[in-house]
Amino acid sequence: MSDSIVRVKVNKNEFTWDKENGLFSFDGAPALLFWDTAIELFIETIMEVSGPDVSTTVFEATGFRMGKLVSSYYKDKFDIEEVFTQYSDIYRNAGWGNIEVAYFSLEEKKIIVRLKNSWEHRIFKLLDKDQASVLLPSHWAGVFSSLLEENMWYKLTKNQLAGDEYDEVEIFLSTITPNQNIHALTRQKEQKYIQELEEQVDNRTKELTSLVKTLSTPVLPVLQGVLVIPLVGKFNDERMEDLMQKALFEFTKQRANYLLLDLTAINGFDEYVVDRLQKLVKAVELVGGKCILVGISASFSLQIIQSGVNLKDIPSFSTLEQGVEFALEQTGFELIKAK
């Protein structure tokens, strides 16, 4: 039974393998062993799925919380003076690289840690990345946040991947926390998502506006030289401007002689609409054509009379058929019923 438990002691650190139950522990705490290449794949997957901004925040938050966890496990076992030596042994013996606390000031609340051949450096080197370490620097910020019971953060002053002899991490008092970084990133993502939605809505609105313009003022050729535009709904400045441009463009393009404006489905036939229609009539006359109003019902004609609008100079008919017949007569054609 004793052969099922294997213990190896390196300095003051004890590694224990429980072969019968398939368990491994480091200084009495359950632990796992991974190859660097396995961690490389794990890190690479996070970076690929999350992107650079999100993955950096994930690494920093994870490292910081791991540091606080490690510190809470060991801080009752060592005095603050012993911590630096003991932590150096612990991390080295666990394969995390060589760690040196180069500077410590309790008064300044400032620590400088040097990391050489850390596992994070090894992983980023395998990935052929120029990215500076983030997980282990934030890890040490978490360690000293717990030890000193202060809010600490870090900055990387030297980078082994960039050619320095080691990674140098300065730990200092700060109002920055991983939680704030996560919230800031979340807000950034939300703002980006909202911006993307607004752009989609804006693009969709432009598409729908274009579609509405096309459908609301279609120019329909009826016979040679005769065009019809049905006016549907309520018209504002934008729709009237679109009507004017489209009518004149199609009228000259198709070399028409008559433009029939069908008012059957128009809403709000007031002085504003009449004024714009009269301008359209004059514009068509300037390019050598003539406008005809059709779709004038009895109630509509009464409304026009009561409004005081003068349309006597514009040919008007109650139906589209009458307007088309009039236009044909003016051009020398007539509709004959086939026998």
From TrEMBL:
PROSITE patterns xrefs: STAS (PS50801)
Signal peptide: none
Pfam family, one: STAS
Recorded coiled-coil stretches: 187-214
Keywords for the protein's UniProt record, in alphabetical order: Coiled coil
Stretches assigned to the STAS domain: 216-327
Record's keyword annotation contains Nucleotide-binding: no
Keyword Coiled coil in record: yes
PANTHER family: BLUE-LIGHT PHOTORECEPTOR (PTHR33745:SF8), RSBT ANTAGONIST PROTEIN RSBS-RELATED (PTHR33745)
Protein name: Fis family transcriptional regulator
Protein species of origin: Niallia nealsonii
